[in-house]
Every structure is written in structure tokens, then in C-alpha cells.
Amino acid sequence: MTTLSKGDKAPAFTLVNTDKKEVSLADYNGKNVLILFFPLAFTSVCTAELCSARDNMAAYNDLDTVVLGISVDSPFTLGEFKKQQQINFELLSDFNKTTAAAYGALYEDFVLGMKGVARRAAFIVDKNGDIAYAEVLEDAGQLPDFEAIKQTLASL
Predict the structure, then answer these.
(1) Annotated catalytic residue, options 10, 23, 33, 46
(2) What SS3 string covers 26-84?
(3) Which residue ranges make up each domain of the chain?
(4) With a threshold of 0.90, does the pTM exceed it?
(5) Other CB atoms within 10 Å distance of the CB of residue 89
(6) Distance, CA of 106 to CA of 82 (rounded, Å)
(7) Which of 18, 87, 78, 33 lies closest to 55, judged by CA?
(8) 33 strand-pairing partners
């Protein structure tokens, strides 16, 4: 599985959000997009990661950046998670695992014998549709480097 690097063209995708509507990367052409892949809703590290993004939304807005969270959970699971955690950005279901695979952010084998779960990863897609930042973590217990993410966004 190839992981994307800075300068690569971001793979296009269309996924279903928690309102069961399709959302495409192309919907955000001309904006910076922070894509946060996360393994599973309702787990402690994923909750911490997405709540961090939620709590820093003003900073992302100031940096003209849209945040998208993507996991292999169903739209229904993500909808409940979004409601409980008051997430203020789109959560998208990559139930068929195509987008995580395209971004090189898919575990073949995860904990408890689960297969095909999104890796914890962060990508910034710039206004031209190119990857400006790529971080794919081997250890799902770690969080993305949000300071490096903000620095990258500030430089765009």
C-alpha cells in the first residue's frame, strides 16, 4: 500500500455523511481541507482526536480550512458519535474502505482480529488539490501532530 506524500495529487472521493448525503472532495475546490482518518468512533483516542479538532475549529476557520473526519464506521454510527461529542464538522463513512486505501491509510489487520480499519492519519489538501501535509501513524494510540498541521496551513 502506497502512502501519499507532499506534492501528490489528492485522490478524489465521494462519501456519505451523517445526514446520508454525498460529500465529495471536489465540493471544497479552492479551499484547504484537513482530512482526519480515524479507526473507530467511540474509542478513546479517536474521541480525543476529533474533540481536539472540534475545539480548535476557530483556528481552522481562520486558516480558511475545512475539516473532514473519515472512518470505516457506518453513517448511522458516525451520526450518533457526532451528536454525542458535538462534532462541528463533517464525518464521512468510508464503509467500503476505498478512500482510506487510496490514501494509504488502511490497516490490513487491526486489534481484536478486525481487518480493513482506517489508520489514524492526517492529510492537508491545498486549494489546488495537492497534498500539502501527510502523516500516517503506525500506532493508533498516537495523535496527529496538530501543531505541525496548523503551521503547514498557516504557510499555505
Answers:
(1) 46
(2) HHHCCCEEEEEECCCCCCHHHHHHHHHHHHCHHHHHHCCEEEEEEECCCHHHHHHHHHH
(3) 30-155
(4) yes
(5) 16
(6) 22
(7) 87
(8) 66, 125
Q: Residue 50 is placed in which grid cell?
A: 476529533
Cα gap 20→10, rounded to integer Å: 23
Strand partners, 23: 15
Is 46 known to be catalytic?
yes
Bridge partners of 65, per DSSP, are: 32
Q: Which residue has the cell 506534492?
A: 7
Cβ–Cβ < 8 Å for 110, 39: yes
The crossing angle, in degrees rounded to 10, of helices 44-55 and 75-85 is 60
Q: Quick: pLDDT tens for 30-80.
A: 999 999 999 999 999 999 999 999 999 999 999 999 999 999 999 999 999
> Could you tell me the CATH superfamily of domain 30-155?
Glutaredoxin (3.40.30.10)
> What does the longest C-alpha to C-alpha distance in the chain come to?
41
Cell 501528490 found at: 8
